[in-house]
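Lab notebook, design round three. We kept the backbone fixed and only want residue identities now. Task for the bench partner: fill in a sequence for the structure below.
Input structure tokens:
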């Protein structure tokens, strides 16, 4: 019971210190709530000695130190929460190549290079999740037939009259205008693009008609960063 009591008192103290709203509930400002923490800890130690006579003083002090350390770790974590979020996002980007990781401070979108060496980008086209390859050599966004269908485009009614060169050889494409493309927190509307005939392209291409709308994009050894 002593251990639980110490935990509850310190948890309440930390909540008051880090949350202006919680402090306001009892009529305290955030600074006043933070100054209340040492008092709560002292009262906890005194109460432990008065109401838990069966516990040795050494055990009381040990419990106090343990929960004090836990409280300190939580306070440090809260103080550096933005930095820790950035580190967490970078780790997730390494574990999930193609995932659009948004930097909470700059708002830039970061893509980690995939194991094959290319930058695979998880985009949303007309609301449909679409895996794409970052390709500055493509003059426009180019969709495969399956991806175009998933994006709500009637591929059967398109006129495939534009010759294009793909990895599978020369093919034919139809000009289209996409309602929107979203990558992370970056969204662009009315983007010109092409749909190639079925079988001409395995993975859709994120080309220049989208990339040129960015303020800039940078490519490092292992990461692509898009600036809105």
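Proposed sequence:
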């Amino acid at each position: 019971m002593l251990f639980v009591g110490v935990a509850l008192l310190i948890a309440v103290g930390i909540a008051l210190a880090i949350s202006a709203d919680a402090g306001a509930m009892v009529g305290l400002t955030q600074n006043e709530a933070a100054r209340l923490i040492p008092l709560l800890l002292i009262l906890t130690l005194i109460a432990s000695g008065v109401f838990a006579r069966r516990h040795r003083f050494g055990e009381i002090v040990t419990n106090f130190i343990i929960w004090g350390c836990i409280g300190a770790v939580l306070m440090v974590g809260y103080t550096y929460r933005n930095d820790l979020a950035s580190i967490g996002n970078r780790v997730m980007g390494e574990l999930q190549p193609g995932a659009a990781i948004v930097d909470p401070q700059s708002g830039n979108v970061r893509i980690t290079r995939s194991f094959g060496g290319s930058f695979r980008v998880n985009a949303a086209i007309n609301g449909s999740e679409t895996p794409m390859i970052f390709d500055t050599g493509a003059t426009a966004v180019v969709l495969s037939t399956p991806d175009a269908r998933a994006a709500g485009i009637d591929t059967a009614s398109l006129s495939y009259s534009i010759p294009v060169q793909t990895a599978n050889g020369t093919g034919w494409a139809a000009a289209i205008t996409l309602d929107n493309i979203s990558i992370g927190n970056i969204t662009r509307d009315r983007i010109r693009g092409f749909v190639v005939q079925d079988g001409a392209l395995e993975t859709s291409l994120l080309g220049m008609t989208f990339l040129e709308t960015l303020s800039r994009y940078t490519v490092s050894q292992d990461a692509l960063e898009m600036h809105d």
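Keep this in mind before ordering anything: The chain has a mean pLDDT of 77.
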